[in-house]
Amino acid sequence: MTNPLFGDLSDLHMHLGSASTAHLLWEMAHERGIALSEKNYWNFLELVKIENKIDFEAYHQYFETSQKIQSSPEAIEKSIYEAISLSYRKANVNILEIRFNPMRRNREGLYDLDKVIFSAIVGLKKACMIYPVQAGLIIEMDRRFSEKQNQILADKAISFRNEGIVGIDLSGPNVKSFEMKSIQKQVEKAKSFGLGVTIHTGEATPASEVREVIDLLQPDRIGHGVRSVDDEKLMKDLADRNICLEICPTSNITLKIIEDWQEMGRIINVFKDRGVKFTINSDGPVFFNKNVKQEVAGLVEMGILTMEDVKIIRKNAVEHTFTKKS
To answer: From CA 268, how far away is CA 272, in angstroms rounded?
Structure first.
């Protein structure tokens, strides 16, 4: 039975590192003998759930705990499986894309990178055999990585493109030395093999970087992209090029990218008025304690979205999902 109010939903922007429940992480850590900074479960929750607004850079520190615990083939399989299961059971999600960086989960070469990716795919396949979810995995490159490391990640995505890997992404905290052109060849190669491309930009970076990304990399989607609202010409180009924004409202407000819900409402209304396509996503349902169904319900309750808007957002997700390319 689908949700009687919204029907089936999609979540195209979910990070694996912020999608594992606290009890799963806690149990996996103890099963593997991982030393935790907190010995009390209730205190451990503070390491994997964000209760108050924090800075964008501080946010990335939360991933250190979850990624460390997820760093084994067995753990990555369990984590992917749970993310799909929870999304279907708790949020009525029937189209889901989960992004992760396997190089941040192989313990600096302790585990074979192919084995880590394969285990993620096994978790995906198992979950999709049980739950009617159209799901795919996106491999993340990282702004902190060297050009060679990001090339390896893009090549791995290509190698597993027929097994469940559906796209590539660029994420990570802002690094002044990073140049977008350093991943241009990787992106072009991935696209030539039919992989989808989404790039984190216009979140903690300005509209000018979104402009650079769409001109240089020509992505299918933009991760977040809310700062695009600051540039009229950019919004027109996003609409004309049919590039879809992956908006994550609670994440943007919690990380102080957007001041409050009033500003979020204004931005969403501008995008609607300018014809910029977007989807609503969770980003990290555990970190932010809100899944995509709760995101959509909250936006409707506040009058930011209408039920007709919800239908359009669902249509946008179906049109722009990478899973149809898998």
So the answer is: 6
The domain containing residue 159 runs over which residues? 9-325
What single letter denotes the amino acid at residue 296? V
User: Which amino acid does the sequence have at 160?
Assistant: F
Predicted confidence pLDDT, tens digits, the chain (326 residues): 344 566 799 999 999 999 999 999 999 999 999 999 999 999 999 999 998 999 988 898 899 999 999 999 999 999 999 999 999 999 999 999 999 999 999 888 888 999 999 999 999 999 999 999 999 999 999 999 999 999 999 999 999 999 999 999 999 999 999 999 999 999 999 999 999 999 999 999 999 999 999 999 999 999 999 999 999 999 999 999 999 999 999 999 999 999 999 999 999 999 999 999 999 999 999 999 999 999 999 999 999 999 999 999 999 999 999 998 44
Query: What is the residue type of 314?
Result: R
DSSP 97-163: EEEE-GGGSSTTTTS-HHHHHHHHHHHHHHHHHHS--EEEEEEEEETTS-HHHHHHHHHHHHHTTTT
Alpha helices by DSSP H, 139-290:
147-159, 184-192, 207-216, 232-240, 249-254, 261-274
Kindly report the CATH number assigned to the domain that includes residue 294: 3.20.20.140
User: Is residue 1 assigned to a domain?
Assistant: no
Place of tokens 């009525």: 92
In a domain, 222, yes or no: yes
164 to 158, 216, 236, 326: CA distances (angstroms): 11, 27, 33, 6
Q: Which residue type does 161 have?
A: R
Burial of 102 (0-12, 13-18, 19+ CB in 10 A): buried
Q: Count of domains in the chain?
A: 1
Query: Does residue 249 sit within a domain?
Result: yes
